[in-house]
Amino acid sequence: MSAKERKKKSTAAAVKPRTKKPAKTAVKEEKKIAARLIPIYIMGKRYEVPEGFTIMKAMEYAGYILIRGCGCRGGTCGACGTVYRKPGDYKLQVALACQKTVEPDMYIAQIPFFPANRATYEFAELTAAPEEVFKLYPELFRCVACNSCTKACPQGIEVMDAISALKQGNIAQAAQLSFDCIQCGLCTSRCFGELAQYHMFQLARRIYGAMIVPRAQHLTEMVRAVDEGRYDRFLGELQQAREDELKKLYEEREVEPMAAGEDWKPKDTRYL
Ligand code: FES
């Protein structure tokens, strides 16, 4: 190898690591971006928290230990109602802390509990008459139809429409429209008429479920069969079984197929 060739080779070897360097830098840069901190204000105090965190995670990152205002962390329990305001915007916004991600310079305060009016009643003494709701929640008629409740709902429920249904005495419609309510209370926090929509809807759903919607025939029959003792022998066998026998029974059980029709029956019909 000539001196010229040797020099060329050694130069190539020398530059090789350098060609890898930008790649490493890029990885580092990526990590830096992933951990980028943004400023937010929790109860008026400034914190730096990772971008992309939910409000709930950001609060915990900032050192808050949440013993109220935190439950399922999945947007279904309604425990984490939160108010916030963004810089340069006069408007107060609401969200679930476990769902909403932080934005730079957001001002945040949680509402673990909203002191809304909740009527007390003996459910067994109620009827399905609309007047029951009117009596327990007369403030229903203070609704001014401003629609703030609907705008505040993190579940996308047509809250104002459900309230209108209740005012018209249509408990079934109010129950159906509010079916996805998670009782977070954010509608109430924004209501000019001081209505506790979520408590009213809960009453509507209870009345609807217990007194309006038709009974499921198959369930009625099954409850009767249980009461008559048709499954006593089978339940007795289960109570006597050892743990390994129970496991075997469980693992070998016949599962109803997802696409089974109404007339599906298991192969073992001894207990039907
Ligand atoms: S923690 Fe349950 S809805 Fe947010």
Please write out the topology.
Elements: H1 3-34, E1 37-42, E2 45-50, H2 55-61, E3 81-85, E4 93-96, E5 107-110, H3 130-136, H4 148-152, H5 159-167, H6 171-177, H7 186-189, H8 197-212, H9 217-227, H10 232-240, H11 243-251
Parallel strand pairs: 1-5
Antiparallel strand pairs: 1-2, 3-4, 3-5
Helix pairs in contact: 5-6, 5-8, 6-8
Bound molecules: FE2/S2 (inorganic) cluster (FES).
What is the string of helix and strand elements? HEEHEEEHHHHHHHHH
Class from secondary-structure proportions:
alpha+beta
Question: How many distinct helices?
Answer: 11
**Span between termini:** 91 Å
The strand order across the widest sheet is: 2-1-5-3-4
The whole-number mean of residue pLDDT values reads 89
Unreliable spans are 6-22
Number of strands: 5
Helix content bin: 40-55%
Shape: flat
Q: Enumerate the distinct ligands.
A: FE2/S2 (inorganic) cluster
Largest sheet: 5 strands, mixed
**Gyration radius from CA atoms, angstroms:** 30 Å
Could you tell me the strand content as a percent range? 5-15%
Structure description:
The protein starts with a helix and ends in a 21-residue tail after the last helix. The chain has a five-stranded mixed sheet, covered by helices on one side. Mean pLDDT is 89; it is low at 6-22. It has 272 residues and is α+β, with helices and mostly antiparallel strands. Helices cover 43% and strands 9% of the residues. The chain is flat. The chain binds FE2/S2 (inorganic) cluster. FE2/S2 (inorganic) cluster binds next to loops.
Keyword list:
272 residues, alpha+beta, five-stranded mixed sheet, 11 helices
